Hints:
The protein is α/β, with parallel strands linked by helices. The protein folds into four domains: 3-176, Rossmann fold (3-Layer(aba) Sandwich), CATH 3.40.50.720; 183-257, Orthogonal Bundle (6-phosphogluconate dehydrogenase C-terminal fold), CATH 1.10.3660.10; 302-318 and 533-734, Enolpyruvate transferase domain (UDP-n-acetylglucosamine1-carboxyvinyl-transferase, Chain); 322-530, UDP-n-acetylglucosamine1-carboxyvinyl-transferase, Chain, CATH 3.65.10.10. Helix 12 packs parallel to helix 13, helix 20 (618-626) runs parallel beside helix 21 (647-657) and helix 20 runs parallel beside helix 22. The radius of gyration is 29 Å and the shape is globular. It starts with a strand and ends with a strand. The model has no long low-confidence stretch (mean pLDDT 94).
Amino acid sequence: MNKLVVVGVGLIGGSFAAALKRAKVAFEYIGVARRESVRQEAVAVGLVDRAVATLAEVAPELGEGDVVFIAVPTLSVAKVIEDCARLLDPKVIVTDGASVKGSILQAVEAAYGEIPGQVVLGHPIAGSEKSGVSAADPYLYRKHKVILTPTAQTDKSCLRKISDLWLLAGAEVVYMDVEEHDQVLAATSHLPHLLAFALVDALARDEEHENIFRYAAGGFRDFTRIASSDPQMWHDIMCANGAAIVRSLDLFTNNIQYLRDAIVSQESTKILELFTRAKSSRDEFAKLISHRTRDAKMQNIINYRLQPGGSVTGRIRVPGDKSISHRSIMLGSLAEGTTQVTGFLEGEDALATIAAFRGMGVQIEGPEAGRVTVHGVGLHGLQPPAEALNMGNSGTSMRLLSGIAAGQSFDVTLTGDESLSKRPMNRVADPLRLMGVTVDTQEGGRPPITIHGKGKTQAIHYDLPMASAQVKSCVLLAGLYGEGTTSITEPAPTRDHTERMLRGFGYPVATDGANVSLPGGGKLVATDIDVPADISSATFFLVAAAITPGSDLTLEHVGVNPTRIGVINILRAMGANLQLSNEREVGGEPVADIRIQYAPLKGIDIPEDQVPLAIDEFPALFIAAACAEGATRLSGAEELRVKESDRIQVMADGLVNLGVKATPTPDGMIIEPGPIGGGDIFTHHDHRIAMAFTVAALAATDEIRIHDCANVATSFPGFVPLAKQVGILIEEQTL
Ligand code: S3P
């Protein structure tokens, strides 16, 4: 069994061990503490399995797969790093939890003579005023951020291992470079502590006003609370991060000097201006933390535990199509009259779209049992939102709404959760700018995105640089407000729900081969929409049946739009036994019942023309490939790297964790099938990763634990009960 050595079993180290033990991470847990009483207590309370006085005592036992976590006070870390450099096999991963990173990195360089790949520095942003073994808390890191600060030399697999451990401890992992970390922390944490200590000390020593604190009230208490923190710890931090703190302190001192001068010279506008500016920044921050607390409260950590085996039989209907649900709200809102939607997907993504349009003054009733009533306001009836519109995890909401916002005569800012905030938005910002609209994004074209609409757009022709229905739809929706005809050419066919639904709302859209065009200045007339079941959600069950001997499953009322059936074509090419029946059209979208029975699968080279038609289905298809006879190769799918997670890397990591030979390539993957074992899977907040590995359990030989599955609710509410119903051995655990 691998070993986790925790050097320093106080609050930070003890809580790390406690959290991993609680998550049943299989390690031998070893504590290092100089004082015997601490060692005894750590073993007695079960924090560690054994405890030693020095790292040297345990170092000879350590090798590949073992981890040393340094959790001693900041100024003592360097000494432990020296021990690590001297005593440990380079295969042992070394990580730490100190609040300052620059000085630790210097210590690493000094001790090793270079920055070795196996050292991964980190800083959990969590703490407590308590300390010592008894303060160790398995929940300390739950929903707290951990900043990892890899360097160019850091070994990727070591980084991933440490990141995985933090995720297992319940934390959220973010990455920064060392310098940025130290500067950010200096400004937001170290400087405020320094000021609190300085203020309390200055007032306490003011000889003219003895016992001054007797009269102090809430303001003083709020400002100085942190001056009760551990002086030794903060002393260490000030010494270790001096340069960055001094930089922030200088900024602050300049401001103080400016205010002092303004008071002395009675320049009251200067004072008022500064205070007003500060108040508005503080109010923004207050909003941010209240959103954060609300999000954290709403979002439990959900894990799935799957027993190997199970069966797949029955007749089921999966929830409504996500793409069509989004569009029903968007076009319903822009239409004249009332649109009735049935079969609406009550997942978080589609709900984010509803909330956004409500935020722009549209009255929307429901959803209730899949029914939504949208009281359209017409193309020019949206109202300016009072605040930024939060799209949650939904890329479709953000990209399509950007197109609609481009035609408004007010500004709209769109924000998203951590995963969406990393996704590229220049793909929509670029064409919108060509349409004469000012669009602001963050560095690298990331959200939040602000669209400064001018009430109309310039019609353009746009050659889509990538096969993306979201970008196509964004341009077409902006084209509704265009002066003239807006047209696009696609490099490959992508889902055409926007075009179909616009026609359903009576808007003329012309399609000619790879070209789609529409005139600006028309109107949409309300209509009723019956949303078919989502083929992307159905896919998990199609694959489940395809890989499980004896299975026989029927999925009802599934949308089988020709631009979405790549998964059917690919599964058939692999030898799956699939039949479509009861084929019909509802509201301009083809639907069918799909019956699938087990048949052995064979590996294939996936035809590139099927990639855009199955773009969301690859996580599940990779599982099918792992169960086939012979290798499967995917190429031309680089778009998978910018979905809710990097689906090529995250799926490959997961498959490898389960013992399958999966080799990621820049634009795809090669999967050589083999027995699927058990293990831990990290979803990286991606709903489809969670569901794909749920299905893998049917073919596994051991238990699979899937971490961080809360986002399944973005696209597939009710997934777990439905999976149980067909025969998958799944248990949901909420932390
Ligand atoms: C979608 C288009 C696809 C797909 C996404 C939904 C849509 O994204 O992956 O889940 O509703 O238009 P891209 O346009 O980025 O390929």
